[in-house]
């Protein structure tokens, strides 16, 4: 039997409440994941700073040189006596700097059209959470070609939204209609829907490569202010006469 108007209204209200609760639950999970990601990122930055402080305490200095023959000669001589003025001098040891670099010739890049994601563009400027809620509700309805929405992410750099469906092939159905009309900011607004392209780099191999224009100096004693000592070291190694007349110890 057909439902009376009041029952239809009550049913619609109940479905709306359930949908709103589901969206909020997903937002909470997304926020928790963001907090965990931010914490891990902060921990990584703290580790980097700690490592940098450790290098500073050990008085390890890196000096970038702009001419490859000069850097090579410094490494060949290995140990260098640096005049600090007066009768004071120190002996430092030069070591090569190695970097982990990709072997680009072995990189294969592939792109595929996502079966679960769509890209929504031509969006109005409005409060982000409200915009995402409106998009999730619109694209979760079957009459709009959509289905259950698993995630909705706003990309601030391009001012677009990546919307992810819970099931495959819904995205393919949605993009058949390129333009969708939504009620946004109390008026009708047309957004554009296009396929989302997945990019993946496979078979990426890396190798340790010696940096041709940098050396690492070790064995630097703590005898003066760091900035002053850094300046004296740079002056010493920027003079070609010092590089080519020094003798290995």
UniProtKB/TrEMBL annotation:
Domain NID: 70-150, 161-242
Record key words, sorted: Cytoplasm, Immunity, Innate immunity, Nucleus, Secreted
Pfam families: NID (PF07292)
Subcellular location, principal: cytoplasm
GO biological process, one term: regulation of innate immune response
Subcellular location: Cytoplasm; Nucleus; Secreted
One GO cellular component term: cytoplasm
Family, per entry: Belongs to the NMI family.
Protein name: Interferon-induced protein 35
């Amino acid at each position: 039997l057909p439902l009376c108007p009041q029952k239809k209204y009550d049913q619609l209200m109940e479905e709306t409440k359930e949908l709103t609760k589901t969206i909020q639950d997903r937002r909470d999970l997304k926020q928790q994941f963001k907090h965990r990601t931010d914490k891990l990122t902060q921990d990584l930055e703290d580790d980097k700073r700690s490592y940098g402080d450790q290098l500073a305490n050990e008085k390890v200095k890196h000096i970038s040189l702009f001419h490859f023959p000069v850097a090579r000669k410094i490494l060949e001589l290995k140990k260098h006596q640096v005049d600090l003025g007066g009768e004071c001098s120190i002996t430092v040891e030069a070591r090569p700097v190695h970097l982990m670099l990709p072997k680009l010739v072995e990189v294969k890049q592939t792109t595929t059209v996502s079966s679960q994601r769509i890209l929504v563009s031509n969006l109005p400027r409005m409060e982000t959470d409200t915009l995402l809620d409106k998009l999730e509700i619109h694209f979760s309805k079957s009459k709009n070609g959509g289905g259950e929405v698993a995630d909705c992410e706003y990309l601030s750099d391009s001012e677009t939204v990546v919307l992810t469906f819970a099931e495959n092939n819904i995205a393919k159905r949605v993009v058949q209609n390129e333009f969708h009309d939504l009620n946004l900011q109390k008026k009708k607004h047309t957004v554009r829907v296009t396929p989302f392209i997945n990019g993946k780099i496979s078979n990426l191999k890396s190798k340790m490569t010696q940096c041709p224009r940098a050396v690492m100096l070790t064995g630097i004693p703590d005898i003066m202010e760091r900035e002053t000592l850094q300046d004296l070291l740079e002056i010493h190694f920027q003079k070609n006469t010092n590089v080519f007349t020094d003798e290995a110890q």
